[in-house]
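re: that chain from earlier
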Amino acid sequence: MTIATTGSMNRIINSLPIFLFLFISLFSSPTLAQTPPWVTQTNIYQVFVAKFGGNLQGVQNHLDHLQYLGIKTIWLMPVFKSMSEHGYNTTDYYAIKDSYGNIADLKNLVSAANSKGMKVILDLVMNHAGANHPWFSASDPAQRKDNWFIWSADDKHWQKPWGGGDSWSRDPYAELDRDHNGNAHDDDYFYSVFGATMPDFNYNNPNARKEIIDEFTNVMRFWIKQTGVSGFRCDAARYLAENGPDPSARRDQPATHEIWKQLRANLNAIDPQAILLAEAPTETYAEMLKYYGAGDEFNSAFHFNYQGVLINTLKNERRPGNFFSDLYAIQSHLPPGVQDTLFLSNHDAFTGGRPASQLGGNIAKLKSVAALYLLLSGNPAIYYGEEIGMPGAGSDAAVRQAMNFDLAASQKQDPGSLLNHYTRLLRLRNHYDALRGGITYFAKSAAGGNWDCLACEAGRVALIREYFGEKILVVHNFTSNNQDIRLDLSKTSTGLDIPDGASVHALMGGGDFTAISSANKANYPLGTVFGFTSKILYLGNIPQKYRNAANNYPSYENALTGG
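^ sequence. v structure.
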């Protein structure tokens, strides 16, 4: 669930059979008091520097685009020196890739982003290094870190942890005596989950493990102190510890969680406001939840597999039966102070193609799926170019094309564009507490026939975002047909007390609405929701804090002009 934070306040939401939210307590221990509250109410924009301005100065030159869009956190894909454009085979963890600039350029970018209300986090690859890193390749044994890698006299032919392929590669420096026993050829193979250019670190060796953890603690300290970044997205978080040939023994191991907890504690000591964001596409949600620990491991983790649920809802024009169960599988079991991260696609083709390709370039569906996930609980993570409908599918190269800033500039001038749809939605999300940090509750709806249910398939969905008493209703129509929708807003349906007499104000979709009463609460007439559109309604009086000097409040319709 989305966890909203205000200091040390504790909050409990009691379960009802139809709602899967069980218990929230916020910052209830000294350890968790160090959890930065900003991570529970942000949004994220993923940037491939090479494709988004070409270098760090180029990214800085385009910060106005991100500020206009409403971005709060920028995730930079790897910027350290490496062997390839993608950067996931690092050769120097303390230096910027030459083509990207230098440390001063990153510091300037972070400072400029901060001045515009945005934080910056870096991609940190701690499962493996690049094969050209001196730790692996130096001819001087004193400079190499042979015990930091995993060696074998022969190819053990272990399948990769996700099945298929070989996890062992031949040492390109076979003349080196890796185990320092006088025999240069009893250690000619190294363990590598992601291929021959990316040897895995040896977290199984107790001495090496301590040294590697200490080294990466220094790496985190260096970039925080030198540039002011606000945390790290951690690549391949599942694969640190390996316990034998079985693929399941080389992912999600208890030792891996111990390592991350130590690194989180070390990061807290460096900067209590910095975060760790996990890439852990586990086979089960139970395993995914373990990466949060008791709130003492990752601050957030990407909600893998749910991107397929979101996209398929619009592909099929129906909400699947697992829509809420998959959402709640993570969000109703999160420890205090952490946050789920939702996304539609990213730089890895295995997550699916870009939404524009998956949805056939249908702008109405692209707008609908954007509204769906940007208005759910959890931090949305937008992949660069998603907001302008860039296509790409089938390969990593296809989903990593250069950002089309000409298209972005053109769409900025069109109030009805996909870019301005994202902008309007993010401005609403950033403005209203319940849309930014609220929990998601299901509400029953009907469209001329039977009422839907939590686990039903339906061409629509109604939900309420709630934050410390503030309630905002969100209704989506996933079909091309207009739907005349009725809502059951009773406590039996929603689990929420909506007082009789509560006024209703349109934040998206327009219209005038009658107040909620005992007579209409269980069969509230929402009216027509047009095909592939959404309505957002504020339930109750809109507080003065949301209004401007002219007493107007922001809505989707006036978001571009300031409300």
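Confidence is low (pLDDT under 50) at residues 1-33.
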